[in-house]
Amino acid sequence: MSSSKEIKNRVRSVKNIAQITKAMEAVSATKMRKSQEFAISARPFAVASFKMLKGLLEYASVLPSVLEKREVKKSLICVVSSDKGLAGAFNANVFRKAEELLFGMKKEKKQYVLVTVGKKAKDYFGHRHETMEKTFLGFGDFSEFKDTMPVADSLLEGFLEKRYDEVIVVYTNFRSTLRQDVVKKIILPATKEGLQEIVESISPEKGKFSEQEISEGAETRYSYEYLFEPSPQELLDMLIPLLLRMHMHHIILESNASEHSARMVAMKAASDNAKELIGELQLLYNKARQASITQELTEITAGVEALER
Fold first, then answer.
1. In what order do the strands lie in the sheet with 74-80?
2. Does domain 28-260 have CATH number 3.20.20.80?
3. Which among 16, 45, 85, 28 is positioned nearest to 250, based on CA atoms?
4. 181 DSSP β-pair partners
5. Burial group, residue 83, by CB count within 10 angstroms (0-12, 13-18, 19+)
6. 4-27+264-308 falls under which CATH superfamily?
7. What digits encode the pLDDT tens for the residues 82-130?
8. What pTM did the predictor assign?
9. In this structure, what DSSP letter does residue 227 have?
10. Are 79 and 102 in contact (CB under 8 A)?
């Protein structure tokens, strides 16, 4: 059995760790709520824009460049992670999904290029000697549209220049505080079905912008007469990339909210485990102290009996 001094030092260390995890839990909870507000505040505009685009496509007779399907000779895989750790299995789940995708492509001998968002993804694939075309870091907790635009512009530019024929994004979609889903989504080439899927995926499960409300609105048939100026091709070539940039911005916001939620849950679990460990160590300390007292009493009694003989 360890000495009472050693156990006391361990209790002190665990208490210090518990204070840190408790503070990190509180900070993550605050950041998560703010991240949710940022993500949710972007949803009404996203939903209205995609619904409008869906209606425009029904009346337009030309096909925008980003909607053109072509033979997939090379794919771009964009993996969205966090810059920081201590978020439980948040990053590990994203990397597992990405590894499955890359393994399938290698097995089928398909060509791909890799783009990472977040320091953890850069480090992970760097250690595995994966070649990364570009890496993006430091978006922070509450990134603005102008901050995430370089990511979307890079993906769009490569697709329009036909350096790759499809863009697949692997990220974590925020559904609720206790549920975040890792998603593998093809965002380029865009499709009408994909636009509908985007509308459904950016809606929360409950609340003002719930899936039920949005899905009902998404089926609205437009009865307006559209006049295109200067031309449908130019307007749609401008509108769709803008909406895809906004969609990429929303993906990063969803990932941020999921990261803080996962970190809050992980820190709460760590705090609970520390509390349980402190209780076990305190019991062990009491036993060690009782054993020490018993031993001292035994030695005193033995000494008294020796003197009386």
1. 132-136, 111-117, 74-80, 166-176, 179-188
2. no
3. 45
4. 173
5. middle
6. ATP synthase, gamma subunit, helix hairpin domain (1.10.287.80)
7. 999 889 899 999 999 999 999 999 999 999 999 999 999 999 999 999 9
8. 0.81
9. -
10. no
